[in-house]
Amino acid sequence: MTFDLIVIGSGPGGYVCAIRAAQLGLKTAVVEKEKTFGGTCLNVGCIPSKALLHASEMFHQAGHDFAHLGIKVTPELDLPAMLKHKDDTVTANVNGVGFLFKKNKIDAYQGVGKILGAGKVEVAGADGKTQQLEAKNIVIATGSSVAPLPGVTIDEKRVVSSTGAIALPQVPKKLLVVGAGVIGLELGSVWARLGAEVTVVEFLDKILPTNDEEVAKQFQRLLQKQGFTFHLGHKVTKVDASDAGCKVTIEPAKGGAAKVLDADIVLVAIGRRPNTDGLGLEAAGIATDRGRVVIDDHFATNVKGVYAIGDVVRGPMLAHKAEDEGIAIAEQLAGKAGHVNYEVIPAVVYTQPEIASIGKTEEELKAAGVAYNIGKFPFTANGRARANRATDGFVKILADAKTDRVLGAHILGAGAGEMIHELVVLMEFAGSSEDLARSTHAHPTMSEAVREAALAVEKRAIHM
Ligand code: FAD
Ligand code: NAI
């Protein structure tokens, strides 16, 4: 079979790329090695984790917050039903991708894809049979997998990755999380809300190391109030797992005495690494750098007609970044001018409260020697936040001291992941804090805190 485009991998990068290419009239095929489409994000990542984050938050609120609102309930956990809600959500989403492939007349092949050279892909099915496909262009969108912790075996029962952690058959009494990154804090939150004692061991001396430090520090205090225990500046050196539980040896990262902690379940969440094994990159002469496929500014690898997008290439490992790259390369291959603005990619941690950020952190601006003004506004001073009992957190806007152009924004607060988008649009249009400060915001909304933070850049917030 000959195509205009073969996409290897059907995650957010691959499936979105295929749909956009088909919309633009390219004869498109997708090769996916798993039984379902949608990749990490839809099957074991974004979607199931958010289904559990929502359900566990509802459970927690029913037990802890409803009484303050005059609602008396004693919630009882039905974990199998909660896991079914998650599984049903995944099924609906992955089936949705299959439907979109059919609707857009995309040919889907199930099997492991291997690049034999420019324009040639071999698909090896589960039955051992192989077939060869040809195309003018190939897009590698094979995503990433969990990074292993040296010396620790992930059995997905006692010692789990995120995949095991979204399917635990019972609430662990003690959950030990290795890595205070996004996965550790999101999935740690799920099980903490359902009753687990959560301990987090983090190599660095701070949580969420790429976030704005002020936000991360306040967030750490809030998580501690929620019952989290942190061992920062520590590394896990050994996990002895048995049916009785796990003995976890931790040591200070800078050297010192080891301690042994008990846990029922250990979650390893120390990052992810690109999927390139078995893709035939070396034989095809496609360059990689520390496992990631090397691309130029137009997603092209060093082999003509072979492109790569998503988690398998440089940049943040985020579904929306992969999707936007998928759209951009499809548009380029159809003769249009697709592009991704990497300066304006939001990132959200879906905990309670949420953390949403875009653009530069204060630390990055300082390091780059850029003069900036800060506008900050706390949710305690926002009427809707008080009405909703959601006063934790604040909005922080960083604007260029000379031009007032917004360079970064960081929101810690309930619903931050929705609120950040007005800053996405503002920054995409190179807007200033003054533009935001002059935009009417509906009252009473949490988003008024965003406008107040913009007003605070020039010290004229009204409610503070
Ligand atoms: P993937 O989604 O990993 O898809 C790659 C696909 O390629 C897979 O289906 C794989 O089976 C297939 N494949 C690999 N090799 C081959 C081969 N040789 N042949 C055929 N098929 C192959 N990001 C967010 O933005 N928001 C979130 O809330 C979020 N939550 C997450 C929660 C968890 C627990 C995890 C683990 C990740 C989360 N992410 C989130 C990250 C997000 O899942 C990834 O950034 C995103 O899935 C990357 O998309 P992708 O298309 O590059 O790769
Ligand atoms: P991460 O990179 O976010 O965090 C890993 C953490 O582990 C870091 O704080 C790091 O310092 C620490 N660490 C590394 N080695 C360690 C060690 N040996 N001992 C102790 N700590 C160690 O990685 P995570 O949480 O695994 O997530 C992987 C990717 O998935 C992220 O890049 C993220 O972008 C994506 N993701 C995004 C989500 C979202 O957008 N809401 C949700 C979940 C995942």
TrEMBL record:
InterPro entries, per database record: Class-I_Pyr_Nuc-Dis_Oxidored, FAD/NAD-bd_sf, FAD/NAD-binding_dom, FAD/NAD-linked_Rdtase_dimer_sf, Lipoamide_DH, Pyr_nuc-diS_OxRdtase, Pyr_nucl-diS_OxRdtase_dimer, Pyr_OxRdtase_I_AS
Name of this protein: Dihydrolipoyl dehydrogenase
Keyword field contains Oxidoreductase: yes
Gene assigned in the entry: lpd3
Cofactor: FAD
Top EC group: oxidoreductase
Residues annotated as domain Pyridine nucleotide-disulphide oxidoreductase dimerisation: 345-454
Record bears the keyword Ubl conjugation: no
Miscellaneous section: The active site is a redox-active disulfide bond.
Active-site residue numbers: 443 (proton acceptor)
